[in-house]
């Protein structure tokens, strides 16, 4: 059963089930994210957090349920509707996946020109602003291999934002980085959270970051949200024994 979404809901999962073979990874999952909010998914390894982001990117399909984004339906839906709805969503992955043969500026302008049909000049203008936002305005002419992992990840953030998504999905974006590069990337994301109205849905093992940027934290276990609330509530006064155990192990 799926109720009508409330007006400012940007993402809504209604009774979403995802199985890989016999493994039920998401089990009748229901949750929603309101426009402009920063929501963090936490929980044990294998609890289905990344699968949620991959469903939103349409990299995998659910077995059952309804997924809505910005008033449109991502599942079930026809190809045309999926293409339209997907335009609202940008994602930054653990691995940066930049185009190795293109310089930094071109990495950021390529999709807006090709997919959105933006003029090259407008895309370049916007890309320069975004590279400034991620602290890389002096690197626009270099190739990704000449950058540190942290700098590459900041280019990947600029590239995702260049598509003007309403929601930015962040999947453990610092987990492939050397420890000394993590803070720079998280600072950029904190800035974006503070200075833009973009909606964020993050999977992270960086609990201090989750505490800093989140409006809401959703605690996952075995494919379900077992507890949700403000970071103060979840981190300082969790209700569920599994949440206490999890936080005890990671904090
Ligand atoms: N393409 C796939 N094929 C088969 N099983 C998969 C696939 N993708 C994910 N799984 C399984 O789904 C479960 C949930 O994986 P998922 O990556 O969503 O968990 P997670 O909570 O993000 O974990 P982690 O914190 O370790 O990244 C795991 O048991 C995983 O092995």
Automatic annotation (TrEMBL):
Gene Ontology MF terms: ABC-type amino acid transporter activity; ATP binding; ATP hydrolysis activity
Do you know which Gene3D superfamilies this protein is assigned to?
A: P-loop containing nucleotide triphosphate hydrolases (3.40.50.300)
Membrane topology according to the record: Peripheral membrane protein
Source domain of life is Bacteria
Q: Where in the cell is it found?
A: Cell membrane
* Cross-referenced InterPro entries: AAA+_ATPase (IPR003593), ABC_ATPase_HisP-typ (IPR030679), ABC_transporter-like_ATP-bd (IPR003439), ABC_transporter-like_CS (IPR017871), Ectoine_EhuA (IPR014343), MetN_ABC_transporter-like (IPR050086), P-loop_NTPase (IPR027417)
Q: Where is the ABC transporter domain?
A: 11-247
Quick check: keyword Nucleotide-binding in the entry? yes
For this protein, the record's Pfam families field holds: ABC_tran
Q: Which UniProt keywords apply?
A: Amino-acid transport, ATP-binding, Cell membrane, Membrane, Nucleotide-binding, Transport
List, alphabetically, the GO terms of the cellular component aspect.
plasma membrane
Q: What is its main location?
A: membrane
Matching NCBIfam families: ectoine_ehuA (TIGR03005)
UniProt record similarity statement: Belongs to the ABC transporter superfamily.
Write the protein's name. Ectoine/hydroxyectoine ABC transporter ATP-binding protein EhuA
Source organism phylogeny: Bacteria, Bacillati, Actinomycetota, Actinomycetes, Kitasatosporales
